[in-house]
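Predict both folds.
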Amino acid sequence: MNYSKKLRGWSLRDAADAGQLLEITCQFCRRTYRFFPHDLLKLTTDVSLDRLAGRFHCEVCDKSDYINLRVVQIWGSENGKLSVRRLVRINTVKKPIWEDGVL
């Protein structure tokens, strides 16, 4: 079975409930980041994992076409060895939108 078809049946909430990590890899520049699903749920709605990969852009090369998402189960031997990105805070930017009108 194709891995992307497996991701279609698994949602962000399912991965958070199972205690899994999401591993995002840019196949262009070979950068890998790992995220906790419950951190991503604070930023987006509960979507299937096959749709989530399209929302990421690589921070180094700024490409989104080469993003690959994998679900990783955490094992006890990996505890303290894997680097994981954590959500610290969310900044909200206020941006004024102007419109010219007639007096």
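Second protein follows, with its predicted structure tokens after the sequence.
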Amino acid sequence: MPTFTAPDGTELVHRLVGEGEPLLVLPGGPMRASAYLGDLGGLSRHRLLVVLDLRGTGTSGIPADPATYRCDRQVDDVEALRDHLGLDRVDVLAHSAAGDLAILYAARHPQRVRTLTLVTARARALGVDFTAEHRREAAALRAGEPWFGAARDAYEAVLAGTATDAEWDAIDPFFYGRWDAAAQAHAASGSEQTNFEAGEVYASEGAFAPPLARAAVAELDARVLLLAGELDGGPLPRVAATVAGLFPRAELIVQPGAGHYPWLDDPLAFSRTVATFLRG
């Protein structure tokens, strides 16, 4: 897979999937190897996905300084990838925790961002996040599911900070619109793909300065898409709407029946939505 060197000398890897104009893709987790994104529900039929393995994940190198796992410190990695690709401006798509990284990149390099697609994305960088009550509200939507009782009890243990590994596993169904074989296989790969040590650093103290980021994105000329899942609690669709309101040129689309991984729940709807937005 193609490699490039970050400003601090760390060797980073990205994979290329599909064809067409490049779309720079940032994985969430936080700090989960990009393999979980697959081809984003066939979005690779519309665009060339340039999918970054963040430092310390997947096949990218481990940095000499673990402090560089912090989200704001990784903005330089994204800019180094843009420069490596030889692109003056980029379309950026970020999932989940990578929403923070993409927002900080757009705030620091607004002239380099043509479009920004935030998929079920966090926005702590802007001072907006989900809460335990948001999680409970979304979980209640699944009360008719056969797995709900055990998963709800496990969720309460997670929210209380007392969960066992088994209880962490038991809440996985809440993150998918359909708890089928594909979703179960996808969930099972999560632990082995994630750098948990790096994830602890990602949003640590000093990573975010919301007033500065809000002021920067308020002047952002790029078009922005917030794609939320109807059943997702992180963020709820109304929280995603709040984030959209912080950008001058943003739109919110809520994918029906989708959880935190909408490209798995309805690949065709997801890829069509994003491709249509990117075409403008």
